[in-house]
## 1
Amino acid sequence: MEPSFTFFLKEYPCVQLGEKRIKKMNYLVEAMEDFYNEKNNCFRIKIFKNNIQSFLLDVYDKTRTLFKIDKSEKIGRKEEIFIKFIHLIHKFCPKEREVGFYAEKLYITSHYLSSITQSITEKPAKYIIDRHAIQRVKIMLKYSNVSLQDISYELNFPDQSFFTRYFKKHTGITPLEYRLKY
């Protein structure tokens, strides 16, 4: 894979796709699974690897168009700030979930940061922060046995109750329900 693709994944690890696009991607994943499970095909691993590469390139192509940054042109000030914002989210989220924290790190106002993210992604900065935070929390809930209290403490929530309300607000279920379900 070309280096620009791995850079893209690092910059945009979480995007929202339409229902139609998700159905097409699910179809591709099922096709890859069929090839992988076809034990009698002597080229199955090579075919599987090529299918994964094709799938990832398709993801790259479809998701990069969701952002209004044309890589062939020199990026402007807003795009530069947005990229720095994403880097900061990777570094500090989910422990830091307030727009003001990131705006201060970027030496701009919270309002200006939100207007930049709105113009590039059509989503406010708080939405992007919360999406990243929830993704990280889901990973912690799914792949660790750390107690909810310890997770809430580790992620700088005032208490477990606030953590539970935050998670439920963004997912519709409690952290415990999520852990038991997944």
Note: The CA atoms of residues 21 and 62 lie 9 Å apart.
## 2
Amino acid sequence: MLLNDSDRPRSPVDLRIDVPHSARMYDYYLDGKDNFTADREAANLVLAEFPQARTAARQNRAFLRRATRYLAASAGVRQFLDIGTGIPTSPNLHEIAQANTPEARIVYVDNDPIVLSHARALLTSSPQGVTAYLDANLLEPARILDSEDVRDTLDLTRPVGLSLIAVLHFLPDDADPYGIVATLLDALPSGSYLTLTHATADFARAQADQAAAIYRARGIPAQARSLDEVDCFFDGLELIDPGVVVAHHWRPDAAPPTGHVEVTLTDDEVSCYAAVGRKP
């Protein structure tokens, strides 16, 4: 089954390719092709100060794959709400979840014009499952929860996997990120999960601070947070082992087969925390 809100009439999308965009910069770090000159110029400035950005982006994606696989295959989660989706990068969350649980239902949420223009790539569900795309802002959690897309696709009386991957570090403290996460979790039942990653300056402060300054100078809010600050997003939740850790330490996949080179990453090369927590 396919729930496709991209078939509804829409106003023309202004991609503003003359100014850098966080989703397109992230796409560039991942060697994607959905970015423009302004994005590449800004991203290269970041990479000059913080060369870890490419590694951090790749480890974010690797964590998303592992965490989603855990929730679908081991924790029995059949519904996912992914906010701050970003430009589609295969495998997308629904592909991972439905590979393990074909009947999984997923709602993607983003308000970035570039993501909206690629929404159809996020709506190719398995025949047994459902995917939907909602054009909405994380800053308005009540609107997300009350939307027709969420209400028609997800059963909020049953556990939901809430995914906030590489998005909260674009919410400064004055945007009340903790309150936003609490609002979302309050609407979800016992047995739901929060999955997130968040940039940190704990391991390379000068570099991370300079990278954040480059984003802010181009109108993109950015704020790295410490281990304790990231841990606070999980207040009241049961952290899944190993807790809040640098992303590549969260349940890493088995070592590569004999004869393959294993790349050993340091914490400062990844510089983002990751965790999964269960709502009791």
Note: Strands lie at 79-83, 105-110, 130-135, 161-165, 193-199, 238-239, 245-246, 272-278.
